[in-house]
Amino acid sequence: DDQFDAILEDGATMFGFESLYKAVEDGELRFNELGMFEDPLVAEMSGNPKQIKKRLEDNRALYEELSFEVEHFGDQLQDRLKSFGEKFINENFSETGAWKDVEFEAFLQEKKRNAQQQLVLEEEQASEGMTITA
C-alpha cells in the first residue's frame, strides 16, 4: 500500500509500478528496489498499519536525503551529515554505493547515539593563584 501511495503521489503511469513489481517478483520483498533501506523489522510489525506506514515514510525520506547528499556533496559528507558520526560515515560511505546496503535500523541507532551527549566533564583543575570567573 505504501509503495502504491508513493506512485500515485508522483502521478506516475503504469511504468511507475515496475520497481514495485521487481521488488516482490520472486515473493521476497527487497526494499532497495523501492528506493529504501532494507528493514527486516517492518515484517515483524504486524497489526499497526500507521506505525508501519510511518516507518516506511521515514525510511524513504532518509534514503532520498542521503542519495542527494552523496550525489551532490560526496566529498563533504563529514560536514553535511551532522546526524552521523565520523566513524560511521567512514565505514559506510567510503565505498561507492556501500551506504545503500546498510539497514535502516543501523542509521536510526547511529542518529540516536549522536543525539546523546557524548562528552562529560569529569573534573576541573586550576593551578594555584588562578582566578576563574564566569
Task: Note down, in words, how this protein is organized.
The chain has helices at residues 2-9, 18-24, 41-44, 49-73, 77-80, 86-93, 104-115. It has 134 residues and is an all-alpha fold. It has one domain (2-115). The radius of gyration is 21 Å and the shape is elongated. The model has no long low-confidence stretch (mean pLDDT 81).
Q: What are the SSEs and their pairings?
A:
Blueprint: H1 2-9, H2 18-24, H3 41-44, H4 49-73, H5 77-80, H6 86-93, H7 104-115
Quickly count the helices: 7
Element order, helices and strands? HHHHHHH
Mean pLDDT value: 81
Largest sheet: none
Strand portion, in percent?
under 5%
The low-pLDDT segments are: none
Tell me the overall shape. elongated
Rg over C-alpha atoms, rounded to the nearest angstrom: 21 Å
Structural class based on helices, strands and sheet pairing: mainly alpha
Structure keywords:
134 residues; mainly alpha; 7 helices
What is the gist of this entry?
The chain has 134 residues and is mostly helical.
